[in-house]
Design goal:
The complex is a heterodimer of chains A (334) and B (286).
Chain A: H1 9-18, H2 24-66, H3 88-94, H4 99-132, H5 140-152, H6 155-165, H7 172-180, H8 195-220, H9 225-233, H10 238-249, H11 251-267, H12 270-276, H13 287-297, H14 301-332
Helix pairs in contact in A: 3-4, 3-14, 4-8, 4-11, 5-8, 6-12, 8-11, 11-14, 13-14
Chain B: H1 12-39, H2 44-48, H3 61-69, H4 72-103, H5 109-118, H6 124-142, H7 150-175, H8 178-186, H9 191-202, H10 204-220, H11 223-228, H12 236-239, H13 251-285
The chains are: A mainly alpha (334), B mainly alpha (286).
């Protein structure tokens, strides 16, 4: 995509600068330069490449290896010497009749429900907010700042504040729903039992919709004004413009945005961990915290790694299907 | 973009929808921030009893006490060192990578960009443990203390923000006219000099925006901070939990501390948000 004209620029420039026939020395210098230039982009990439390999790819391979090992606390000091387990960790993870597999399957469904709700609503809030602030009006800049604040706060700080708001005795949520509005007949527990799932969803939306807002806002700036002007001359109203022009133009942004939100939400560890600690209540036992518990609380790293690998495979498959599906729709629609 | 639909005034239905929806969203965004600020100036008995919207009496004692209940200053310094180093290094590495991607055509470019972005997909939990074990092993073999040190955390965080940094910086660099650095090359600058003299100054706001984003990433990370730090190197992300003891949860101090740790990143982010939007635009258009 960026075939640069400037690859030839230096040599052409130096020739022009000298304005005489190139001597053999020039020629060999130029050859050296070409080699250097060919290698140059790779040299520039090298630090990034090494770091990514060291911190992401190598540990991931180790993780896959560990998933075939019987790595418990007993072997942790000499972890390379842990005995091989074959497919045993995987068998345990996907045997849905036994306790471990059943719990994992439950955790998987919880995570799916959590992800669908949180991503869907984050996307909706962000898109609506971005479209409604597309035209300038008084106070728009202030509103943008307000909307972006949740995303700027450190995750753990905002989750702690939400945990405070969800407290049974002294929290804002019970105060508002029970004492002020009288919607619930008695105060509810939000951080244990069924409500904990909704607490998690609400916090995730609060945290992520500003990102959707930011991305859609950026996408809106790429839509040419002429489209709106032409349609206005044709008599289209605001609502029609949003449906016919804005939404279709946002499709490329949405393709990336929904994927990123999906991956972040599905993998989210910080929110449940800060909210619940290392073991979440069953209704909100999302997969990242479930695996953390299997690995670092019950000290069964082999099992935890096997679960992580399964999770990664799932994400890979979903992402691939998503990309194939959305790209095809994009090309067929124009 | 000022008067996009100037030809026709929006109908009242649109204006009312806009007012109502935007008000609700603003409330949703702001209520937790308000709770954080107002609860941070309440005495302890007021935050442990029924919630009240208006703090009365107001006390600033929590802002004094936070530094003594837990070693907040130490956590703060640790977070500052780790986040500042990680973000600076991340941007330094990303600048070169983004320069290569935006200015050169080379074999494997697509693979590189795809592979780097795909690291966003990995569940952190999958490589938290192996990385921990690798760091411990390297420490045992070479004596370089990666586990429990700030260095290990810095390297880790630097790679977390790297993919996004490369992606954003490539976008910014693409928006710098190629003719500019070509002119510098013709004038006899090497590619590195052209990068530093021409491309970086032209893309400086974008670079600062990415720097702040990388800083935020490191400042807010919890999983690796909880796995890879010890008492001496603990960061804020883990340290804030210390305010809840078995006997007492100092909610007013927790709120005060949350506010104190949030101010630097929120301020930085809000100042640079314009450039972040610009970077996302060029990234999305690509």
């Amino acid at each position: 995509m960026t075939v640069s004209i400037h690859q030839d620029a230096p040599s052409a420039g130096s020739d022009a600068g000298r304005g005489r026939e190139p001597t053999p020395r020039d020629r060999s210098a130029r050859l050296l330069q070409r080699i250097r230039k060919g290698g140059l982009p790779y040299l520039f990439l090298l630090p990034a490449l090494i770091l990514e390999l060291l911190i992401h790819f190598v540990p991931m391979i180790f993780g896959i290896v560990i998933s075939f090992k019987q790595l418990t606390l007993f072997f942790i000091r000499n972890w390379t010497g842990a005995p091989w387990a074959g497919w045993q960790n995987y068998h345990l993870a996907i045997d849905f009749h036994e306790a471990i597999g059943k719990a994992l399957l439950h955790s998987f469904w919880v995570t799916c429900a959590f992800t669908v709700l949180a991503v869907g609503l984050s996307w909706l809030f962000g898109t609506v907010a971005a479209i409604l602030t597309q035209d300038s009006f008084r106070g728009r800049a202030a509103l943008r700042t307000i909307f972006l604040t949740p995303f700027a706060l450190p995750v753990y700080a905002s989750v702690i504040v939400w945990a405070f708001m969800f407290q049974y005795n002294n929290g804002l949520v019970n105060q508002l729903l029970h004492n002020t509005l009288g919607i619930t007949s008695r105060p509810s527990f939000w951080l244990i039992g069924h409500n904990s799932f909704f607490a998690l969803v609400i916090i995730s939306i609060w945290r992520n919709w500003p990102f959707a807002f930011l991305c859609v806002m950026a996408g809106l700036q790429g839509i040419p004004h002429d489209l709106y002007e032409a349609s206005a001359i044709d008599g289209a109203g605001v609502w029609q413009q949003i449906r016919r022009i804005t939404m279709p133009s946002l499709r490329p942004v949405n393709q990336v945005l929904v994927l990123v939100l999906f991956l972040w939400t599905f993998n989210d560890f910080t929110t449940p961990f800060v909210l619940f600690g290392s073991s979440a209540p069953t209704p909100a036992d999302v997969i990242s915290i479930h695996i953390y518990q299997a690995s670092f609380v019950t000290w069964n790293f082999g099992e935890g790694s096997a679960m992580s690998v399964l999770m990664l495979l799932f994400l890979l498959v979903v992402t691939a299907i998503y990309l194939i599906f959305t790209s095809r729709r994009r090309t067929s629609n124009g | 973009m000022a008067k996009r639909r100037s030809l026709m005034a929006p109908p009242p239905s649109f204006l009312w929808t806009r007012r109502i929806v935007l008000t609700l969203l603003a409330l949703f965004a702001l209520v937790p921030v308000y709770v954080m600020i107002s609860s941070s100036v309440k005495p302890l008995q007021d935050v442990t009893s029924t919630f009240r919207w208006i703090p009365a009496p107001i006390t600033f004692a929590p802002y004094h006490d936070i530094w003594y209940t837990v070693p907040l200053a130490r956590y703060f310094v640790n977070s500052l060192i780790v986040s500042a180093s990680a973000s600076a290094l991340s941007v330094a590495v990303a600048v070169f990578a983004a320069y290569a991607v935006s200015r050169y055509g080379f074999r494997g470019k697509r693979i590189f960009t795809t592979a780097v972005l795909s690291t966003q997909m990995f569940p952190g939990i999958l490589f938290a443990l192996p990385l921990f074990l690798i760091f411990v092993s390297i420490g045992n073999a070479t004596g370089i203390p990666l586990f429990g040190s700030r260095g290990g955390l810095i390297i880790t965080y630097l790679t977390f923000s790297l993919p996004f940094a490369i992606w954003m910086l490539t976008g910014y660099f693409e928006s710098v006219p190629k003719a500019l650095d070509e002119a510098a090359l013709v004038d006899g600058c090497g590619p590195v000099r052209a990068l530093f003299r021409v491309v970086i100054p032209a893309a400086l706001p974008g670079i600062v925006a990415v720097l702040i984003y990388a800083f935020m990433t490191a400042w807010g990370e919890v999983l690796f901070a909880s796995v890879m730090t010890n008492n001496a190197t603990r960061t804020l992300a883990v340290g804030l939990a210390d305010y809840s003891t078995e006997n007492n949860v100092y909610w007013n101090q927790i709120m005060a501390a949350s506010l104190v740790v949030s101010v630097p990143v929120v301020a930085g982010f809000l100042i640079m948000q314009r450039y972040l939007v610009a970077g996302l635009t060029s990234g999305a258009v690509k």
